[in-house]
Specification:
By secondary structure, this protein is α/β, with parallel strands linked by helices. The chain has two domains: about 5-95 and about 200-420, 3-Layer(aba) Sandwich (Adenylosuccinate Synthetase, Chain A, domain 1), CATH 3.40.440.10; about 105-195, Orthogonal Bundle (Adenylosuccinate Synthetase, subunit A, domain 2). The protein has 13 helices and 20 strands. It has helices spanning about 15-25, 75-90, 105-120, 130-140, 155-175, 180-190, 195, 205-210, 245-250, 285-290, 310-320, 360-365, 390-405, and strands at about 5-10, 30, 40-45, 50, 65-70, 75, 95-100, 105, 200, 215-220, 260-265, 270, 305, 310, 325-330, 340-350, 350-355, 365-375, 405-410, 420. The strands form five sheets. The chain has a ten-stranded mixed beta sheet, sandwiched between helices. Strands 14, 16, 17 and 18 form a four-stranded mixed beta sheet that branches. Helix 3 packs across helix 4 and helix 5 (about 155-175) crosses helix 6. The mean pLDDT is about 95. It binds guanosine-5'-diphosphate, 6-O-phosphoryl inosine monophosphate and magnesium ion. The site of guanosine-5'-diphosphate has 22 residues, from helix 1 and strand 3.
Length: about 425
Amino acid sequence: MPAIVLIGAQWGDEGKGKATDLLGSRVDYVVKFNGGNNAGHTVVVGDEKYALHLLPSGILSPGVTPVIANGVVVDIEVLFHELEALSARGVDVSKLLVSANAHVITGYHRTLDRVTERFLGKRQIGTTGRGIGPTYADKINRVGIRMQDIFDENILRQKVEGALEQKNHLLVKVYNRRAIEVNEIVDELLGYAERLRPMVVDTGLELNRALDAGQTVLFEGGQATMLDVDHGTYPFVTSSNATAGGASTGSGVAPNRIDRVIAVVKAYTTRVGAGPFPTELHDEWGEFLRSRGFEFGTTTGRPRRTGWYDAPIARYSARVNGVTDFVLTKLDVLTGLEKIPVCVAYEVDGVRVDEVPVSQSDFHHAKPIYEEFEGWAEDITGARAFDDLPPAAQDYVLALEQMSGSRISAIGVGPDRDAIVVRHDLLT
Ligand code: GDP
Ligand code: IMO
Ligand code: MG
C-alpha cells in the first residue's frame, strides 16, 4: 500500500497528528502538502507532549523522511525555530526535505493578514494571523517568492521589489502602516540560504522515485475538508486545498498513485474561527465538550466552538475525498453522557435536506435534525479491541459508520499514543 492520504473530515483538529504518529513507524515518508504554520498538531508520546505547526507529525518517528512539499507555504523563521526545539528534545530532524517550489511567508504577508482581518470588521474570518492567505494570494497572483529564489540574490531582489511595489501602496495608503524596505526582506531571506541549501530539493522527484522503489509515502493534510478553499464553507476557510486532491497538486504525485484515503473525524464537532456550524452548542453541553475534550487551539490558544457529530458533513467528506477509512477520534470525551444526539440531516426553510447544501446561506440557516443514541458511563480509555467497548459505545460507532459513508477502521479512546482501537489495519 504505497501512497496513503490522511486528511481531516471536519473543521480541523480532529487528531490528524496522532493518527499520523500511529502510522509513523510503518511508513518511509510523511509529506505535508498544504497549509503552513496555521496547523497545530498535538502528539503525546509517553510523558512527552509535542505541538507541531509547520513540520509534518511524521518527524517524530525515527526512520521517517519528513517532507514539506510544494503546496505548503513556509515561514522560514518558524521552520528553524521548530527544528531547533525538536532537536533540543532529542528528535532527529536531519532528514527533512523542503520543496524548491514551496512558497515563502515573509513579514509583509504576516502584516497583511492581520491588517486585512482588522479591516474586515464584522466579516472577519478569524485567521491564525500567520500570513497564510496573503502568501497563497501572491502565489496565485504570480508574485510569490519560492524557496529556490533564496539561492539567487538577483532574482530574489527583483521578486521582492515587484511584490513590495504593490504592497507598500496598500500598506501605506489604505492600511496606514509603514512601508516595508526591500532590503529588510531580502537580507533576512538571504541569511537563511546556507542553512536551507542542503534540505531544499525537488521533492516531487524524490517522492515519485521512492514510490517506484516500493516505499510507503503518507500524505498528512493540514486543516480539513470544511476549511478547503474550494470545498469548504467559503469564505470562512483557509487558503489551500486541504482535501485529498490537494495531496496530488501539493506534492507532484499523481492521483492514480494514491491507494488509500484516511479521514480523521471527531466523535463530535469543533471549529476555530468564524463561519457556519449547524450543530454548534451554546449551552452547558457545548461547555462539557470543550472542557472534557480540552478544545483549545494548539496554534492560537482560542477556545474551540463545539457541537454534536454531523453525519451529512462526514458523508460530504467521504464523497469529496474518496475516503476509504475513517479514524474516529475522541470517543472517550463522550463518556458520561446519558444520551448522545447526532445530526442526521438538516431542515432548511422547513424542508428536510439530507446532504450539505451547496448554497452558503442555506447552510447558514440549516437546523440540525437529531437522532439520539444511548450513552455509556464506563471509562473506555483502556479499550484496545472493539469488544472492550461498552455495548452502547459500540452501537454509537456502528451507527456513525452506517451514516457516514465509509468504514470506521480505528477509534481513538484517549490522547496517548496507544489509546486506540484498531478494527481494520489502515495500511493493508
Ligand atoms: P490535528 O490538528 O488534527 O492534528 O489535531 P489537534 O492536535 O489540534 O487536536 C486534537 C487533540 O486531541 C490533541 O490534543 C490530541 O492529543 C487529542 N486527541 C487525539 N485523539 C484523541 C482521542 O482519541 N481522545 C482524546 N481524549 N484526545 C485525543
Ligand atoms: P489543523 O491542521 C482548525 C482556521 C482558522 C480560520 C481559518 C483561516 O490543526 O487542523 P488561516 O490562518 O488558515 O488563513 O485561517 O482556518 N484554521 C484552522 N482551524 N485547525 C487548523 O489546522 C486550522 N488552520 C486554519 O481558525 O478560521
Ligand atoms: Mg490542530
